[in-house]
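Many introductory courses stop at the sequence. We go one step further.
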Amino acid sequence: MPFANPWRLSAVMIVILGLAGFAGHQAQAADGLVIKTSDFGVTKTIDRLGIALERKGITVFKRVNHAKGAAKVGLDLAAAEVILFGNPKLGTPLMQSNPMIGLDLPLKALAWKDADGTVKLAYTDADWLAKRYGITDKAKVFKVMAGALNKFTDMATKRGGLPKQ
């Protein structure tokens, strides 16, 4: 009998539970995220997103270059950059419904170079934010937010997506 030894059974169960937990963690990591592949490098993707946002009057608050931060402490990190942006006309009504959504506002998008060499752009899905914070009285705001996020991130990631001005 292969599991007659209780220690062996315990070890097997730990491995199985650990793998199940890891698989669950991976699925959970993508929960609520929209991830797109970019035709450009990390910096250019974030540059393009910033241009698209600012052209529509959306404030870009900050950019954070994680790879530069890692380099400052002597560590290597593949290219990764975050942009923080927002529009008080959309965000304020959401915070009036539930101030805790301020944890996710201003909005953020992350571009990074994946292990396979592709550049990805991710942001939090507007519908997921509504569910996370239990905001049920602002469906129209979340719909506008979702459409805008999709449009601006397409402009940032696709060739020909950013119109000349």
